[in-house]
Amino acid sequence: MRTTLRHNGLAIFFLAIFLLAVGFQAIAGWYDFNNDQLRHGGDEVSFGRYLFSAELGRAILENWQSEYLQFTLYILATVWLVQRGSPESKPLSNAGTESDEQQKLGPHADRRSPRWAKAGGLRTCLLSNSLVIAMLAIWLGSWFGQSVTGRSAYNAELLEHHQAPLGYLEYIVTARFWEETLQNWQSEFLAVGSMAIFAVYLRQRGSPESKPVGAAHDATGRTG
């Protein structure tokens, strides 16, 4: 058990604080939702009902979709684009998909390589792009979930004001939907771009997201 915790500490740590954050978000959101209901003369809802409400689903999923869009774009962009001096970038000469030898594919695979790295054809192609495929699938799924729950929440507001609810296609072209979407996208893009630049000149000793403290500012990649 101790070895498992040590070898998976990073994943376990973030999973634990994720669950705590979602739990506290649900509690805070429930209180806020009920306060809003009372202000508008509505009825309070139970915590169990709020957990399955469109309000909570929208609040969670609009952040998930922006995070996974960030990862999807970052993975793809760092294949071809480089940033001199950043550990977030590959060395300047390695832009592109790299050679089979560099990627340990086919005859260049070693005994510990995944079987599909040696197989060739479709299986190797899928393995070669599996990370971005997974991130893209999660992004599209959470973006669709955000649009569905957002529409339900928006229509509930319209009905409170005695207005006709919107269909799905009508909702996803509203300013409300895109304002909620883009406010998350812009923050993710800023965070990734600033990390790439800050890491050129700033250091964090011991972190793989930083170059060694004594590395030159123009050294690109982890070791330069």
Description of the structure:
The chain is mainly alpha-helical. It folds into 2 domains: 1-52; 54-89 and 127-224, no CATH class. The chain contains 10 helices and no strands. Helix 4 (54-80) packs antiparallel against helix 8 and helix 4 crosses helix 10. The radius of gyration is 23 Å and the shape is elongated. The two termini are 36 Å apart. The mean pLDDT is 92.
What would a concise description of this structure say?
This protein is mostly helical. It is built from ten helices and no strands.
How far from one another are the termini? 36 Å
Oligomeric description of these chains: single chain
Instruction: Give the rounded overall mean pLDDT.
Output: 92
Tally of strands: 0
Shape category: elongated
What is the alpha-carbon Rg in Å?
Answer: 23 Å
* Stretches with pLDDT under 50, minimum 5 residues: none
Count of the domains: 2
Strand content: under 5%
Estimate the helix proportion, in percent: 55-70%
Total of DSSP H or I helical runs spanning 4+ residues = 10
Largest sheet: none
Output the helix-strand order: HHHHHHHHHH
- Output the structural class: mainly alpha
Which descriptors apply to this entry?
mainly alpha, single chain, 10 helices, 66% helix, elongated, 224 residues
Strand and helix map with partners:
Blueprint: H1 2-7, H2 9-39, H3 47-51, H4 54-80, H5 100-103, H6 115-119, H7 121-128, H8 130-160, H9 168-171, H10 175-201
Helix pairs in contact: 4-8, 4-10
